[in-house]
Amino acid sequence: NDNENWWSGGGGLTVEWSTSISVIGNRIENNWAGLAVGLGGGVSVQTSDVYLARNIIINNVSGPTNGDGGGVYLLGQSPITISNNVIAHNIAPGSGGGVYVKNNRSSTTLANNTIADNGNTGIEASSYVSLTLINNLIVNHTTGITTSPPATVTLNADHNLFWNIEDPIVGSNPILAAP
């Protein structure tokens, strides 16, 4: 979608109350979510079982003054898998410039993604999240991965590459080198 959309849901793609959906091989670019508070500038997933793969999610904004998930906003109680995507140059004035995961009482998996240049934070998790990060490139953020209150977050991070960040959370077997 090459339109600049202004509304409170996802600027590019909103998935709500779906039992199962796959979003594969798309370019989600130059979208805005919300006039003041937006959720998911590129993609907003709420209470849905979703598989995002091989997408380019780039140059999206979750709201001009406040908003979470510049690239991707994930909320709900269903399994979510995000794999082999490029999530880059997105902005969230609130939380999670690249990806924001909140209140997912099921599992969320991010595998084999490039998450780069998304403002201050690449990935942020909050409120009862079970998050697995495997083999991702997380580069050029002030903080690559963070949790925020209420932080009842279970985080399993393994074999991720970090570059050009100050990151207290790196998980197991981190690679701290240029991609």
Describe the structure.
This protein is mainly beta. The chain is 0% helix and 45% strand. The chain is built from no helices and 21 strands. The protein has strands at residues 13-16, 21-24, 27-29, 37-39, 43-46, 50-53, 56-58, 66-68, 72-75, 80-83, 86-88, 99-102, 107-111, 114-116, 121-126, 130-134, 137-139, 143-148, 154-158, 161-163, 175-176. It has a 7-stranded parallel β-sheet, with no helix packed on it. The radius of gyration is 14 Å and the shape is globular. The model is unreliable at 1-9 (pLDDT under 50).
Largest sheet: 7 strands, parallel
Q: How many strands in all?
A: 21
Rg is 14 Å
Number of DSSP helical runs? 0
Q: Termini, distance in Å?
A: 29 Å
Percent strand: over 45%
Detail the topology: elements first, then pairings.
Layout: E1 13-16, E2 21-24, E3 27-29, E4 37-39, E5 43-46, E6 50-53, E7 56-58, E8 66-68, E9 72-75, E10 80-83, E11 86-88, E12 99-102, E13 107-111, E14 114-116, E15 121-126, E16 130-134, E17 137-139, E18 143-148, E19 154-158, E20 161-163, E21 175-176
Parallel strand pairs: 1-5, 2-6, 3-7, 4-8, 5-9, 6-10, 7-11, 9-12, 10-13, 11-14, 12-15, 13-16, 14-17, 15-18, 16-19, 17-20, 20-21
